[in-house]
Amino acid sequence: MAAKSHKIFPLGDSALTVEFGNVISEELNQKAITFAAHFDQNTFPGYIESVPAYASATLFYDPVAVRKNFAEYSTAFDAVKHLAESALENPASDNAIAPRLVEIPFHFGDAASPDLEFVATTNNISMDEVIEIFLAKTYRVYMLGFLPGFSYMGELDERIATPRRDTPRTFVPKGSVGIAGSQTGIYSLESPGGWQIIGRTDNEMFSPKASDPCYLRPGDEVRFMAAK
């Protein structure tokens, strides 16, 4: 029998995490997204939501409701674990979500790009080359987190990969586009942050009153383009 390629463990008393690996991988990320989509499409009593991450997915549930409806299991976690294992053993083809290609206008310049010069100097290239390299690639949205609608995307061309700032800023404007190692991301709200800011978009990444409040979703493909 082949060894399992995933781990299942509790996250507190009202969530279960399935970990498919511990590296940044499009294949593992797609497994996490597909698993989460399965439970969005096939809910169970007590189900709250599923959240995919880079290489894992977490199911959040109401333990009281789960215990009430799955009394044959000794704990709510055991019941949800059984459901998770069943989904993993019998993956359904209808869970796949077709990726969207999303184009995002991107401003760069002195005010919008406070760390552009640092990124260029660190990588021994010009600031124009940083922007040219950045705009040339399509980025995968691996997950949302940190802030509502904040997108973790990758992977950057290694020619412009740059570590986070040694000292985070106390204020990063909404819409700022940053670099952290081989990742890029968009600050959906004003917040503190330590990513290297190389530009800004006017697109609203998070609209709490909208039916779909997050502009991007895991699995999307993003291309940045110079704003007119």
What does this structure look like?
The protein is elongated, with a radius of gyration of 20 Å. The chain has helices spanning 26-41, 63-69, 76-89, 116-122, 127-135; strands at residues 7-10, 15-19, 47-52, 56-61, 101-106, 138-144, 151-154, 169-172, 176-180, 183-186, 191-193, 196-200, 221-226. The longest helix is centred in the first third of the chain and has 16 residues, at 26-41. Strand 3 (47-52) and strand 4 form a beta hairpin. With 228 residues, the chain is α+β, with helices and mostly antiparallel strands.
Adjacency order of strands in the biggest sheet = 5-13-6-7-10-9-12
Mean pLDDT: 93
Q: What count of helical segments does DSSP give?
A: 5
Look at the helices and sheets and give the structural class.
alpha+beta
Distance between the termini: 57 Å
- Strands, total number: 13
Instruction: Let me know the largest β-sheet.
Output: 7 strands, mixed
Tell me the Rg in angstroms.
20 Å
Tell me the overall shape: elongated
SSE string, helix = H, strand = E?
EEHEEHHEHHEEEEEEEE
Strand percentage: 25-35%
Low-confidence parts? none
Helical proportion, percent range: 10-25%
